[in-house]
Design goal:
By secondary structure, the chain is mostly helical. The chain contains 4 helices and no strands. The chain has helices at 14-44, 52-69, 78-95, 101-108.
């Protein structure tokens, strides 16, 4: 028995390819800009040297902190403040050698609903 999967795979035409190239370049450029902005934010907070695995865990939090500092919105929510305090605490504990990287990541991991 042979598979017909290859025979039914749609072929990419030139128009689709030409459309995709500028979109992919734009996505790549925006990703580079966001990465550089996030690295700058981590460096300004004194967190430039923490491992990427920890940065990934708190990326969204730092991203929205930067957005708030830019004046795009303001959060007075006590849960947001509590999360920020938790991030500062665990990153400081990791940097000071009080806890392991795994412990900090586990403490900061956002649990799915």
């Amino acid at each position: 028995m042979t598979s017909n999967a290859l025979s039914i795979t749609p072929k990419q035409n030139k128009e689709t390819a030409l459309f995709a190239v500028p979109v992919l370049k734009r996505i790549q450029q925006e990703s580079i800009e966001e990465y550089n902005e996030m690295q700058q934010a981590f460096n300004l907070m004194g967190w430039g040297g923490i491992p990427d695995t920890l940065k990934i865990e708190i990326h969204e939090d730092v991203k929205y902190l930067v957005e708030e500092l830019k004046g795009r919105f303001s959060s007075c929510d006590p849960f947001v403040q509590r999360r920020r305090n938790s991030i500062h605490y665990w990153v400081s504990c990791y940097q000071d050698g009080i806890c392991t990287l795994e412990a900090a990541i586990k403490a900061l991991k956002v649990k799915a609903l």
